[in-house]
Amino acid sequence: xxxxxxxxxxxVYNPDTVPVHALxxxxxxxxxxxxxxxxxxxxxxxxxxxxxxxxxxRPSDGSVFINDTNVTGxxxxxxxxFRLNNxxxxxxxxxxxxxxxxxxxVSFIMLLQKRGKEEMQRRADQLLEEVGLGDRKDARxxxxxxGQQQRVAVARALAxxxxxxxxxxxxxxxxxxxxxxxxxxMEQMNREKGVTFIFSTHDQRVIExxxxxxxxxxxxxxxxxxxxxxxxAA
Length: 234
Hints:
37% helix, 8 helices, alpha/beta
């Protein structure tokens, strides 16, 4: 079942001065449970595409549908609300609030959803346990390693029970061991919980793990490779 569809999605920056065509009529779909990497050289359009899928930016033309909702047709307020309740984000630079503990960072996004205090604390503790940080829930970001901070970011992304998670270069600032541990965690959540992950990445470690690789060149999809999982291959 497709949870994301784009139709002739285009984005032009600086249209009235020096136009930059970041996306050129991209039509694609993402199925529930995918573990997909969007790759390509700098300037290929992969981050712009991710921002469009997440409703962080509006296209110049075309549409993004998430579970049949035309996100590009929503008002700014409705788009923010839709994003809050349907999409999880993991960023390259973690984007954690420095003065908050790990538990408070995970809880904060649920506070925006106006969930009850007990529910927020219970779910935050559960998620931190699942990402291997149950004993660090009271630590602040400055007291955690980069890999641990990114695990908090994954827990935060999962807190809202999103339809899918967008991860923009999530391993870029991690050493090899931390990156592999993070990818192990994401693969486990994808496999066991059916969480859909969509990455924008240059990292070969992520690309090798992906079961689908969409290659962007000059704002267009150049190739779209679907790989068989070990289970399918067996």
